[in-house]
């Protein structure tokens, strides 16, 4: 078998990261990186991460304790006192689930890890459209970040960020995942933990709408399956 | 008293960060941020951080557990198996105390914190010359990072990084600190922990040489005080 270069893949355990892993695995040997940052779904996401890693036979993986997000606070994903809102897909602006500058923190850890293990790429499943206004999910942000990596790493290090989903719609991500036989049944997108996804948070709503548009049935179980 | 805007100051507890805090405190209300990242001198640095914070009457301060550096490894500051080298001020290249992409991680945390508390500046005591080749201590790196902050934060957020020491020599930093009455006696620069600084690591060597060049006596105790 041909030697494939190493790539760090950020795997939250959600569907987008699952499809991103499938794309990375085509040309690279994936090293999986996951962050626990005090999110309510931490254990459920970690299970999805481990199951997707096992599916792809990943040998290098790292789970990082980034709980400082909870200490910094300011977000409904990390602050217990702010309830998760029901989905409102017409909402404009930055949702209260925004962890300030989250992806810059994640990328910094990924670059440190990549430089140590000798990976040449960092794959992240950021999506510009579906990310409802998170400023650090836009292509311009990743372009600026690549420049920071170039400036801030050893001269002989050449690591760039890949965002293969950045311009895709949820429907297209699902179709891409299905064509690559990504294990979507192992992924977890819901903002609540449990054996079944809630079906009503923003993340469930986007996922269910995507499957509806793709004309496919989402393989994971839901408490309720509204039509979006 | 005039209201001063908030600025996050990265305070490792070392001399450079002590002088940086003094500079920040002239025009801003400082909020102190410190990282524990598994460095051997963690407890000693934390003591210096707390004492400098008390000196400036700092109300907002955050100590972050960034121990993931240890998990990622690859550096003599975090990896117990790599010994700290004796000083060699003529060494060219990147020293083995380099934590890959460390400052990008620190800045990401600082920006998240700054956005939550409403700070407008991030002060970091990076020094281009004395940092013996750390790629993330150069001005170009900070310029690129300011662009990432602009792209990756809320549209109404305007945070920029200030590097007031970036082009100074150690002697000039010491002179600046003395003129601002910075509590240099509370700072800790040595790569070893203890009641007295070792006097022989890179960091002690740079500090002692700086004081010698400034014609002043370093107020902290040393085990040995070589002439550099």
Can you offer a commentary on this structure?
Two copies of one chain form a homodimer. A five-stranded parallel sheet of chain A has the order 3-2-1-4-5, sandwiched between helices. By secondary structure, chain A is α/β, with parallel strands linked by helices. In chain A, helix 1 crosses helix 6 and helix 6 crosses helix 7. Chain A has one domain: 3-Layer(aba) Sandwich (Rossmann fold). Chain A is globular. The termini of chain A are far apart. The interface between A and B is large, with 44 and 44 residues.
List the SSEs and their pairings.
Two copies of one chain form a homodimer.
Chain A: E1 6-10, H1 15-27, E2 29-36, H2 42-55, E3 61-65, H3 68-72, H4 102-117, E4 121-123, H5 139-152, E5 160-162, H6 170-179, H7 202-214
Parallel strand pairs in A: 1-2, 1-4, 2-3, 4-5
Quick overview:
The structure is a homodimer of 228-residue chains. By secondary structure, chain A is of the alpha/beta class.
């Amino acid at each position: 078998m041909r030697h494939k270069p190493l790539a760090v893949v950020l795997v939250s355990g959600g569907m987008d990261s699952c499809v991103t892993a499938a794309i990375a695995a085509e040309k690279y040997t994936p090293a999986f990186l996951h962050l626990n940052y005090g999110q309510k779904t931490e254990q459920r996401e970690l299970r999805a991460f481990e199951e997707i890693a096992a599916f792809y036979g990943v040998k290098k993986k790292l789970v990082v304790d980034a709980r400082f997000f909870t200490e910094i606070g300011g977000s409904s994903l990390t602050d217990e006192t702010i309830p998760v809102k029901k989905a409102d897909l017409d909402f404009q602006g930055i949702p209260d689930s925004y962890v300030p500058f989250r992806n810059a923190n994640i990328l910094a850890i990924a670059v440190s890890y990549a430089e140590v293990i000798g990976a040449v790429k960092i794959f992240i499943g950021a999506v510009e459209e579906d990310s409802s206004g998170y400023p650090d999910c836009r292509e311009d942000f990743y372009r600026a970040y690549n420049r920071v990596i170039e400036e801030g790493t050893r001269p002989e290090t050449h690591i760039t960020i890949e965002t293969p989903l950045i311009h895709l719609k949820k429907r297209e991500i699902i179709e891409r995942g299905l064509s690559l036989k990504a294990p979507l049944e192992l992924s977890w997108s819901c903002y609540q933990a449990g054996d079944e996804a809630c079906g009503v948070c923003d993340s469930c709503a986007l996922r269910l709408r995507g499957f509806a548009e793709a004309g496919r049935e989402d393989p994971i179980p839901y408490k309720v399956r509204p039509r979006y």
